[in-house]
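Thanks for the sequence, V.! I ran Ribonuclease R right away. Repeating your input here for the record:
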Amino acid sequence: MPRNKKKGVFKKKGGVIKDLTRKVFKVLNENSGNPLNYKQIAAKLGLDDHAAKQQLLLKLEELKAQKKIKEEDRGKYILDASKNYHIGTLDVTSSGNAYFICDDFETDTFINKSSVNGGLNGDTVKAYVYKRKQRNKLEGEVVEVLERKKSDFVGTLQLSARFGFVVADDRSMNNDIFIPKDKLLDAVDGDKVVARITDWSGDAKNPFGEITRVLGKAGEHNTEIHAILAEYDLPYEFPLEVEAAAEALDVTITEEEISKRRDMRDVLTFTIDPKDAKDFDDALSFQKLENGNYEIGIHIADVSHYVAENSILDEEAYNRATSVYLVDRVVPMLPEKLSNGVCSLRPNEEKLTFSAVFELNEKAEIKKEWYGRTVTYSDKRFAYEEAQVIIEQPEEKKHTIPAEISITDEAYEVDPKISEAILKMDVLAKIMRGKRMKSGALAFDKIETKFNLDENANPIGVFFKESKDANKLIEEFMLLANRKVAEFVGKTKAGAAKKTFIYRTHDEPNVDKLEALGNLVQKFGYGINTKSRMTTTASLNKLLSDVHGKAESNMIETLTIRTMSKAEYTTENIGHYGLAFDYYSHFTSPIRRYPDVMAHRLLQHYLNKGKSVSAEDYEEKCKHSSEMEMLASKAERDSIKYMQIKYMQNFTGKAFKGVISGVTEWGIYVEVIENKCEGMVRTRDITSDHFVFDQEEYALVGRKYGEMYRLGDEVWIKVKNADLERKHLDFYLIEE
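Predicted structure:
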C-alpha cells in the first residue's frame, strides 16, 4: 500500500486546516512589510467557516507568544524581521528530520520533521531559528521554500484504480509523489519511473507530479542501473545527432597533418592499462640518449584535434564532463567511434597525440622538457599484470608472460628492448615517488572491490585490486606530465601577465576533522601529529601504512579520506595538498575527462603565443566539471552498493565475520571482512540488552550489562535481508 494515502490528506477535515503554521508564514512572507489582520489572513488562506477562523486566531496568538511573528498594530500581524529569519539549505535525513545549513551559524541547526514544511533535501529555504528552552540548543522551522534543488525523482510506481504514488528511491525524500491517472505515461504497477513534482500547495501532505520516463520493471538489472544514472540525471545513450556527427568525422591522418607535428613513430612506444580497458588515453615512449640520459615521452590522445570547440560533439562532451564507471559498464563521455576507436592509442596503429617529452638523468632529474602535438605508433599493449611480471624479475634477460596472465591467453616472450624500458622506467618512477613522499605527499593506496560477473551481469564472486609497481609506474609519469604542464603555463616570470589555465587543486584538510580522526584512531592504538604540515602528512602516511592489511584498514582509510578537502577544478591555483605539488592540472585523460580537453586547448593556445583567455568563462566550466565529477562518483558508489546487495542475496542466513565500520543511535554498520560488503545491524535487533548510543566512545552500550559494540570491533553477523529495490542490506548480530 502507498504511504500517506488515507482519507483527509488532500482536503480540510471538519473545517480544521492542516500545516497552519507554514501557511501563516507563507502569507506573511508574501506580504512582507504590510501588516495583516486575522480576517485578511483568513481570506488569503480561503478559510470561511467559524472553526477554521478560530483555529487561525489561536495559531496567531501562539506564534506571537513564541516571538515568531509580532503584532505591529492592534490586531495586525507581521513577520518579525529580526535576525531570527535566515536563508540556507536543507539537509534532510531518511528519518524526515533535517538540518539547516547556513553561514550565519557555526553549527547546523536541527529541524524536526514536523517543521520541515515541504522542504526537500538540498532546497534553499528561509527558516525561523530559535533556542529551545529545555536544551538551550538552536532549532529551526522552515518558513518558505525559496528554490528547489531538484524536482525529478526516481522511484517505484504503486498504482491503484484511480491514481498512483511514486515511492522515491532517495531516502531523504520522505513524501510519496501523487500521480493523477492522466499523468502515468502508460506506466504500470511496479515500474521504476522518473516522476517530476508539478505542484505542492494547499493542504496536500504529498506533492503532485507526473511521470516523465518509464525505466522498466523495478528489480531488473538494466532497470536498476538506468535508475542509478537517472537519479543523478546522467545520460546512458548519445543523441542520434551526436552519434551521426562522430560517424561523419574524417579520421584520415594526412601527410599535411603529420608535417605540422613532431614525428615520433620510430621511437619505442607502448601502453600499460587494465586488462579489460577499451580506451587507451596514454602511451609511454622510451629511448636512451648518447649522453646517458633517458628521453621519456608521455603521449596523450589528441581529442581536441577531432572535437572542435563549440561543435555538437564538444557540447555533448562538456555537458557530460566525465565518463561514468559503473560496476558492469562504462558510460563514456565521447561516442564509441572516438573513445574506443580513433582516439584510443591501440597497438600497431598510427595516432595523433599531444605529448610531454622529458629528458631525465639517473636521479630522475629533469634536464629538458618539450610540449606539443605529435604523431606516434604504439608497438605493444600491456595489461598491468603483464608489466608486473617484468618488474618482479629484474635480473631475467628474457621475460616470458605466462598464459594465465597474458591478455591473449597465450604465453609469449617480451621484446628485450621493451623489458629494458619498463625496468628503467620503474626505477625512475620509484625515485620520483620517493621525492613526492619526502615533500609531504599522502600515500592513499586504497584497495578496490571488484565483482566477477556472469553473462547476465550477475555477481558470482568478489576480488580486490591493489595498486602494484606497474600501476605506480604509470601513475608517476602521468603525475609528472600533469604537474609540469601546469607549471609550464602557470609559473610566470616576474612582470609577465598571468595566463588563465585549468588547475586541479586540493586544499589543506580541516583542522577540526583531523582532530576528530586523531581521537578516533587513538582508540585503536594509532596517532596523528598535527604540529605542522610535514608532521601531519608523515603521521597520516604512517597510519595508512600501519593499518594496511588489518581488519580495520578499509574503515580507517575511508575515514581518513573523509577528513580531506575535495579536489576540484578551478582557474585559481592553490596547489595540491595530497600530492604536495605547487602546480597541478589534468592533462592525461581527455577521452574520459573534459577538463583535460580544455587543458590541451589552452596549452596549444599558449604554445602558439596566444594571449590569456577569460578566467570567468573557464571558471564556470571548471565549476560544472567539478559538479559532474561529484555526481558521477555518487553514481559509481551507488552501483557498487547495488551489486553488493545483489551478491549478498545469495547468502541469506549465512554467517560472516565483519568489522564495525560505523555506529549510530539506530544501529551499527558492519563490513564483511572477506568481501567488503557493508550492511546494518539495527539496534532493535540486538536483544541481549537495551543498547544506547555513546557518541564519545563511538559505541552502542548495554544499559543493564554494560556490553559495548565499538567502532572497529570484530563481530559475527548473519545476512537478514538484501533488498535491491530499497538498496538495504540488513544483518543480524550473532550475540554469543
